[in-house]
Amino acid sequence: METDHGKLRQMLVDAISMMERAGIIDFNGHFSARLPGDRMLINSGKSVRSAMTVDDIVAIDMDGKLVEGDAVPPMEFHIHAQIYRRRPDVNAVVHTHPYWSTLFSMADQPVLPVIMQAAVLGQIPVFPKTASINTRALGQELAECLGDGRVAMLKSHGAVAAGSDIVEAFVLGVYLEETAQRQYMASRLGSVTVLDTEQVQAISRNLWKPNLLRKVWDYHYGKRG
Asked: In what residue span(s) does the Class II aldolase/adducin N-terminal domain sit (predicted)?
């Protein structure tokens, strides 16, 4: 994990801005990066996701107490805190409000590995409660729902992606939404072919590489206005 707080702040700003432009984060949504000492960087609750600056990033502890900055953190910081508490392998968490994949959770339909990029998502559980995750108890339930996975959907609400760094979490959020959109569009034409277990395992090994994940980040970074 990067230890340069300034670089991490800028990466969070870039990640949120790119996701907003891609329609994966709207006027809500938040992205965090773990810091040493049970702390995290996260965008403030009032931050304008379409006009982010490093001043919108605050540092808090796992109980939501401000460590750096003077803006109030998002009320759903519990999502991030409880995943970090449960998962020492996770150093970045994003809570998105995606259009396509949220349709699937609203309709109780699974997002399936129908494109190659979906192979890295793993099993995608759905958190069954339609609610803001604004208490420690709800955050714990969501973290348990995610388990050791990379992605979870929140019924009629959004999604969560957890990675070892900001780039991983960003790419997982992008891949989930791309998969859902293409699955939905293909289903209008007829039955959709789903990758089998052997294909998923082989493709995941090939695609889950730092240089290929960075390629996705660089593509979206290059589209910034």
From this structure: 10-184
